[in-house]
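3.2 Worked example (two chains)
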Amino acid sequence: MILKAEPGVEVVGEAGDGQEAIEQARALAPDVVLMDVRMPTRDGIEATRRIVAEPEPPRVIVLTTFDEDEYVFGALRAGASGFLLKDAPEDQLVAAIRVAADGGSLFSPSVTRRLIERFAGHSEPPPGLAELTEREREVRKLVARGLSNAEIAAELIVSEHTVKTHVARVLQKLDLRDRTQAVVAAYESGLVQPGRG
């Protein structure tokens, strides 16, 4: 009901379980899928993994009542572009859908802190890091700090178009799917530390 009343958002389908969600995503080619975690037939984590593995997949936002690490990290590993709790304010849900449709990611605040703490400084730098230019390294760090393209453009005194180009090159060179993976990779490699920029 919330989404049907939202301008510019069209609900193209609904599914009763994870298997049906996979089939509906294939048949309807939505831009964004809202996925529950606990469902019959196939759970939302596995359904997310299968949907994201499709050619030209939609973005998936996991929307659940279960604020547990197992689901949060499972959803992220499966390729979710966002994780919100069902008690999130309506405007946050709508914002998450718009952000995901635009290629970004949004996580509920309680989830973001746990992600940072869990992944911070736990792995080697990603392959391809040496291929980044100095400017691309700057952009990567600002993306990891959560800045939008407009904020990065203001910080570096360049156009938003230039920032988009740099972000696309960073993602390609580091073989990352989206900004969420870029943020996680930056924390994992220790580029950004929790509580510091």
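3.2.1 Second chain
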Amino acid sequence: MKNALVCFTLCFAAAAAATPMSHVVGIRDSRTIIVDTNGVTSAITLKNVETASEEETQAADYLRRTLANTWVFIDSGDVYRSPDALYVNADMRQHPWRTMRYLGELDLGVRAKGVAAGNKVTAPSLPELPARATPAPRRITSRPKRNRR
């Protein structure tokens, strides 16, 4: 009887420890994600993440781009993205949306049109660097011989 109780306890602890991955189905705001875990939809609030009210939309958009249609591992409010194990809580605390800049579209067609038209496309020339002085040759010194006794 004692062995059966120990076996049941160990099995229950192993089943509780095996937390399944959750699929992100939506983002409510910059701190709350909507996940589906084995058919059960729930809202998860990121632990220790706070954003200013004027940055709310930018932060929520960043979170959408980061977690859109991905799998996450959730450990009591700490969220880790799969498969690269990005710790989402720490990423959101660093305010990465503040440094993002839109640089525009890359148009390689202009260069291709110039080459097709027969124009020579060259790299821009670099400014001349001043000549470096040659270093003085190193003196070769020998070590003093040791007296062996």
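3.3 Remarks
The chain is about 30% helix and 20% strand.
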